[in-house]
UniProtKB/TrEMBL annotation:
PANTHER family: HIGH-AFFINITY BRANCHED-CHAIN AMINO ACID TRANSPORT SYSTEM PERMEASE, HIGH-AFFINITY BRANCHED-CHAIN AMINO ACID TRANSPORT SYSTEM PERMEASE PROTEIN LIVM. This is Branched-chain amino acid ABC transporter permease. It comes from Rhizobium setariae. The chain crosses the membrane at residues 16-34, 40-60, 72-91, 180-201, 231-253, 265-291, 303-324. Keywords: Cell membrane, Membrane, Transmembrane, Transmembrane helix.
Length: 355
């Protein structure tokens, strides 16, 4: 079979996605060689974590229409389980990552079972209540669970959290270049997350998710099981979110209740809104824009939050579909204009003379 045959069946949008992916892969490979600052590379790693969480919340809300506010709780759950397996049982971080992600899936399914019998704003309120309850249980945990030397430790780590329970091994392997190794690991997870998300969105399962979002009554009438489908998207989203949480804990060698703060959750939502809700590349674009803006306004002090708020407000007013949605509309308009110009030239072309 000729290797060129499958390419003929690719749509224009798929070819564009492949081109963007190729550009991103090249950029990701060359980035560590172009950045000398450890601080900037560290911020890039943090931005990749944001992009992973945002992409999975976008899958949950943008494609499946489930307005859950428990995404940071799922992220934290994966990170805490990974840290606790290493801290209490002496597990290697790599061995604890997948169990931490699976624990996050189980937690998300519990959240899903509690929320998915509700609709709309009630899902958001209940999921937010679950996340805040988790935060309160951690920060109010003051009972001594075990003694570490002369220090009493709480089961959940309390307000302090966990630290120095292990790392990804790059410090021992690469010495002073360990941050490049961690960057490569997190970038690989981001790539795998995007590939899997793309496969889900383009599959019949993704079509069922979008149908339930756009017209749930019609989707159910056509045989889509609403409860099972939405529970499935909860689990899919939670696996990569929980895995990212474990990598976050291992990268920073620490995790605490601050990860569950409302500001973190709002930042993730803002990333998706600015980039474009329900667009595949929206979370990545939103992450680049907001993380860059936040970094540029680092010296602005109290005006930093105000500046981010203005950017978000302007984006919502002028670009309700987000940056990617606006660019998509612009490309479609240019394409229609170009097609119209070609058609007009064909109509103006005189017909060939006949004998």
């Amino acid at each position: 079979m000729s290797m060129t045959k499958p390419a003929k069946g690719l749509t224009r949008s798929t070819r564009l996605d492949l081109l963007i992916s190729l550009v991103l892969i090249i950029a990701a490979i060359t980035l560590p060689f172009m950045i000398d600052s450890r601080y900037i590379l560290g911020q890039v790693v943090l931005a990749l974590f944001y992009a992973i969480i945002a992409s999975q919340w976008n899958l949950l809300f943008g494609f499946a229409g489930i307005f859950s506010l428990a995404q940071m709780a799922i992220y934290a759950f994966g990170g805490y389980v990974t840290a606790m397996l290493c801290f209490y049982f002496g597990w290697n971080v790599w061995a604890a990552l997948v169990p931490g992600a699976l624990a996050a899936v189980i937690f998300s399914l519990i959240v899903g079972l509690a929320c998915l019998r509700l609709t709309g704003v009630y899902v958001a309120l209940l999921s937010l209540a679950i996340a805040q309850t988790m935060y309160l249980l951690i920060v109010t945990d003051t009972e001594c669970y075990t003694m570490v030397g002369s220090i009493c430790r709480q089961f959940t780590g309390g307000a302090v959290g966990f630290a120095r329970f292990g790392d990804l091994g790059m410090r021992a392997m690469l010495k002073g270049k360990w941050l490049v190794g961690n960057y490569a690991i997190v970038a690989t997870l981001f790539a795998l997350t995007m590939i899997f998300t793309y496969a889900v969105v383009k599959s019949p399962i993704g079509l069922a998710f979008r149908a339930l979002k756009d017209n749930p009554g019609y989707a159910v009438a056509r045989g889509v099981n609403r409860f099972q489908s939405q529970l499935l998207v909860f689990g899919i989203s939670a696996f990569f979110t929980g895995l990212a949480g474990g990598l976050y804990a291992a990268h920073f060698q620490a995790i605490g209740p601050g990860i569950l703060s409302m500001s973190q959750l709002m930042f993730i939502i803002a990333i998706v809104v600015v980039g474009g809700v329900g667009t595949f590349w929206g979370p990545l674009v939103g992450t680049i824009v907001l993380v860059s803006a936040d970094e540029l306004m680092r010296e602005a002090g109290e005006f930093r939050t105000l500046g981010l708020g203005i950017i978000i407000a302007v984006s919502i007013i002028l670009m309700p579909k987000g940056l990617v949605g606006r660019l998509t509309d612009l490309v479609r308009w240019l394409r229609r204009r170009n097609d119209g110009a070609i058609a007009a030239r064909l109509l103006e072309k005189p017909a060939p003379a006949t004998e």
